[in-house]
Write a structure and sequence with these properties.
This protein is α/β, with parallel strands linked by helices. It folds into four domains: 98 residues, no CATH class; 209 residues, P-loop containing nucleotide triphosphate hydrolases (Rossmann fold), CATH 3.40.50.300; 27 residues, no CATH class; 149 residues, Alpha-Beta Complex (Adenine-n6-DNA-methyltransferase TaqI, Chain A, domain 2). It is 30% helix and 21% strand. It has 18 helices and 29 strands. The strands form nine sheets. A seven-stranded parallel sheet has the order 10-11-9-12-13-8-14. A five-stranded mixed sheet has the order 3-4-5-6-7. Strands 20-26-23 form a three-stranded antiparallel sheet. The longest helix is centred in the last third of the chain and has 44 residues.
Length: 620
């Protein structure tokens, strides 16, 4: 679909009116850098097309997708951020969202002050923690409350507030076994609405999921994970199986495959706005987690005893802690004596046991799958710690060849990093290589003429491909000099303002090579986001390379060694993704401001010319 800034891959229509953009990329493409592209098309002008929003506002629904992953965001949200979704939303749902005054994430910002009557202090902290997380748009939140301290009551209170004030469509309340579903339903039925006097179920329908499915009028659906899975897959579930926890059903998971999930149009991904998982430490991490990840919903976990795996699943977002010790101090619970039992595992090291389901991600296609380990995995680092503790060392140093100590980069004048972040050399993350020397006298029996990138093409934060030149490349060097998707580009010299600037290559021209005044850094793994490296390089790289490079009056240059040792922050995946989401949000906002300023300047220039023309023609 043509726009005034270029053709979008797909423009989405509902009832004949444009409502969104879909940017489709090839398998393995990094979608992290595509958000800005889809945002540009969403704000571009189109001819002869009716839109759901005024021309000066962006189309709201933006998708970026390959054949294995989909990212989505709603530009009308207070802080639009892309998130992964299992499938595309139904057109009927998009229409409902378009006709609403505000988005769900916007309505969450306006939740009223919590009525603390009949609530314990720990319940107040829990609800406020959850709502703070929801307002920040965090997709997952974990609540720790000691058994018997009222976490289910706090959850029901939270559901009422979300239903009443945020107008959520439906909540899924997951329990560990069938008989707990009845207990949860009783909690909803007994809940008295503050300053109202009526019960929750007099306002909203609450149902336990059965063979009939999910009624349209239901506000709260209560289910076990195995019952929900049977509905998604249109398979029968023995009622007896529903009376056992998902963890017990699995028993030993050795040799068992993760539960396959495919799209079910009768239960779309937007079926629930919020999913609350009660006793979430028990059954969602081995063969069931993909059932939860099917839905485009906020996940809220309730547990009394969170493990590291539990906290990791919820993105380290522990919104409230109320331990058993806290409950004993508050006389909600009574104390107990602790006996330490030594086991082989705790005394001799750490391992991932056979039968544990782990998430595997293909480095080329980025397709995710769960795989059950058929043999245990041990960590060599743990064994080395045991040697040190006993005052011993391994018999030889062959392990050092496999686990080499990283060299520390020069971080002079670079910003101090947050705790647990660290700088690493760029060559630890990517392969660095220079380009081909431009030589008009090159004589080779066999060459291939290719377009190539010059310093002028590699700008600060973007690529200017308006003027591409060609070069003869020896056929035996073509393969090694071709640019590939996600290559990070740096300029090695020229005028001082050109040194170190760059951006990311996304196969805009195929095939394409690059000259020797441009370096490319090719990430070793698809887990490394090229845009993260490039944005950091554009921010701090120029000063760094100016200190490290050769300088004359107006020129500067660096050799291959300098970008190889350029320090780059190494952060956890969750933190990196959060930083990139914030950067996407800010950069998109800046682009909108820049576009608006340019349009206003053009209008001002036209007005100026009109006034001058009128003045000199005597019409003023």
């Amino acid at each position: 679909m043509d726009t005034d800034t270029g053709p979008a891959d797909y423009m989405l229509f509902v009832d004949g009116k444009a409502c969104g953009i879909l940017e489709a990329k090839r398998e393995g493409a990094d979608l992290g850098g595509v958000a800005e592209q889809s945002a540009r098309y969403a704000t571009s002008h189109t001819q002869h097309i009716v839109r759901w929003v005024p021309e000066d506002q962006p189309l709201p629904f933006l998708f970026e997708a390959t054949n294995h992953e989909i990212r989505f965001r709603d530009e009308r949200d207070p802080h639009p951020r892309s998130r992964y979704v299992f499938h595309f939303h139904r057109p009927e749902t998009l229409k409902v969202w378009l006709e609403e005054d505000n988005t769900l994430r916007a309505r969450l910002q306006d939740l009223p002050e919590l009525n603390t009557e009949n609530l314990r202090a720990c319940q107040i902290d829990a609800i406020k923690g959850i709502e703070h997380s929801l307002k920040q748009g965090k997709p997952r939140a974990l609540l720790q409350m000691a058994t018997g301290s009222g976490k289910t009551y706090a959850a029901v209170t939270q559901v009422y507030r979300l239903a009443k004030f945020a107008k959520i469509k439906r909540v899924l309340f997951l329990v560990d076994r069938g008989n707990l579903a009845t207990n949860a339903k009783d909690e909803f039925e007994q809940f008295v609405i503050p300053h109202d006097g009526r019960k929750f179920t007099q306002h909203y329908n609450v149902n336990i999921l059965g063979r009939a499915g999910i009624p349209d009028a239901t506000k709260v659906t209560i289910s076990t994970i195995q019952r929900l899975y049977s509905q998604l897959t249109n398979s029968e579930l023995d009622d007896e199986a529903d009376e056992h926890s998902g963890f017990e059903i699995e028993g030993s998971t050795i040799k068992k495959e993760p539960r396959p999930v495919s799209y079910n149009p009768n239960i779309p991904i937007e079926e629930f706005d919020v999913i609350i998982i009660d006793e979430c430490h028990r059954s969602i991490y081995n063969l069931w987690r993909q059932v939860l990840e099917y839905f485009d919903a906020f996940l809220i976990g309730l547990t009394a005893t969170p493990t590291k795996k539990t906290i990791g699943f919820f993105g380290q977002n522990l919104v409230s802690e109320y331990t058993h010790e806290d409950a004993v101090v508050d006389k909600v619970n009574v104390g107990y004596d602790i006996y330490r039992i030594k086991t082989e595992l705790t005394e001799q090291g750490n391992k991932i046991e056979a039968g544990t389901a782990v998430e595997i991600r293909d480095r080329l296609t980025k397709q995710k799958r769960l795989e059950v380990l058929d043999q245990e995995e041990e960590w060599l680092a743990q064994q080395l710690e045991q040697f040190k503790a006993k005052g011993k060392m391994p018999k030889n140093d062959t392990w050092k060849e496999k686990y080499k100590e990283p060299e520390h980069p020069d971080v002079q004048d670079l910003p101090e990093l947050a705790n647990e972040w660290q700088y690493v050399r760029l060559d630890a993350l990517a392969e660095i290589q220079g380009g081909l020397t431009v030589d008009s006298k090159r004589k080779k029996a066999k060459t291939k003429r290719l377009p190539y990138l010059r310093v002028a093409n590699v700008q600060h934060g973007y690529l200017d491909l308006s003027e591409m030149k060609e070069i003869d490349v020896p056929e035996d060097r073509v393969e090694g000099l071709l640019l590939k998707d996600r290559d990070v580009l740096f300029n090695e010299g020229g005028d001082r303002d050109k040194l170190g600037r760059g951006w990311v290559w996304h196969d805009e021209v195929q095939p394409c090579t690059y000259q020797n005044h441009v370096f490319r850094a090719r990430p070793y793994s698809t887990e490394i986001i090229s845009e993260f490296i490039s944005i950091f390089g554009n921010t701090f790289g120029q000063d760094y390379f100016m200190r490290q490079g050769k300088k004359t009056t107006n020129l500067a240059s660096i050799n291959k060694t300098k970008p190889s040792v350029f320090p780059v922050p190494l952060v956890s995946k969750n933190e990196r993704d959060e930083v990139m989401a914030i950067l996407d949000e800010k950069l998109i906002a800046i682009n909108r401001v820049e576009k608006s300023v340019v349009e206003q300047l053009l209008k001002a220039e036209k007005n100026k010319q009109s006034i001058l023309a009128s003045a000199f023609s005597g019409k003023v």
